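Extended Data, panel c. Modelled sequence:
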Amino acid sequence: MPIAHKGMLQAAKAMACTAITLMDNPAFIEEAKKEWQEHLEGRSMFHSFLRMLLLQSFNKGLLIFE
């Protein structure tokens, strides 16, 4: 079995275990929602994603302002 296939199977197993854990503990989901809302700080999800993308690009030197 190719190594990429083994890695994909391990990732699928990890996601399945996470899903089962979340179904058994709905409080984890509520806590994650609360943390995400705090992260957004009143902005939309798109704005938060765009901000993160721009910051990463800037930090890597990909953005040059002339």
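Residues 11 and 17 are 10 Å apart (CA to CA). This feature is highlighted in the accompanying rendering.
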